[in-house]
Amino acid sequence: MPRLFTGIEIPLPHSQRLMMLRGDIITARWIAPENYHITLRFLGDVSSLQADEYSAQLDELMIEPFDLTIKSVGHFGTKRAHALWAGLEPCEALNHLHRAHEKCAINIGLEPEPRKFIPHITLARLTRTRLSTIAPFLADFSGFQPDPFRVTRAALYSAKPSTGGGPYVVEDIFPFESEE
């Protein structure tokens, strides 16, 4: 079974705007816009049975659509940066969705995710990059803020083992309940 994770797809207009942020950072491996997403829960390599059980549980979730807004750019890594990302405005509905996906993962026998949930869209992976190298990028785009986008579903993705960044394949879709 391939590596699996759940996430939120980024609408095309927002992906295109994020792609325009690409800078001249020699150590950056920029993520293709079609692979932009917000990870909700990384499952890793699970059995087919676990994947089916997880999907069945996600099908049962009652989630209402909500809006997300990209608010900033930033990086992961303290002494050296290893990723550039676009961050999101705080959103309780997104946190609720993440907790629901986490609970489903625990229900199929996975260990709880030890890392804190930091919702973001990875823009680039970096290799041994000094913070001073990315400082101009961060300063240039600190005010970046596109329009909000509506989240109406989550997706189950598969990925080939690699250094990250895709390509990712949508294996299943989990529409949220209608607002009617």
What do you see in this structure?
By secondary structure, this protein is of the alpha+beta class. It is globular, with a radius of gyration of 17 Å. The chain has helices at residues 12-19, 48-60, 92-107, 131-140, and strands spanning 3-9, 28-30, 37-45, 66-68, 70-76, 80-88, 120-130, 149-151, 153-159, 168-175. It has one domain: Cyclic phosphodiesterase (Cyclic Phosphodiesterase, Chain: A). It is built from four helices and ten strands. A hairpin with an 8-residue loop joins strand 9 and strand 10 (168-175). The longest helix is centred in the middle third of the chain and has 16 residues, at 92-107. The chain has a four-stranded antiparallel β-sheet, with helices on one face. Strands 2-7-6-5 form a four-stranded antiparallel β-sheet, with helices on one face. The chain has a two-stranded antiparallel sheet with strand order 4-8. The model has no long low-confidence stretch (mean pLDDT 91).
Keywords:
Cyclic Phosphodiesterase, Chain: A; single chain; 10 strands; 180 residues
Number of helices: 4
Number of domains: 1
Provide the β-strand percentage band: 35-45%
The largest β sheet comes out as:
4 strands, antiparallel
Poorly predicted runs? none
List SSEs in N-to-C order: EHEEHEEEHEHEEE
Radius of gyration, Cα only, in angstroms? 17 Å
> How are the strands of the largest sheet arranged?
3-1-9-10
Distance between the termini: 37 Å
Q: Judging from the principal axes of the Cα atoms, what is the shape?
A: globular
The SS-based structural class is alpha+beta
Total number of beta strands: 10
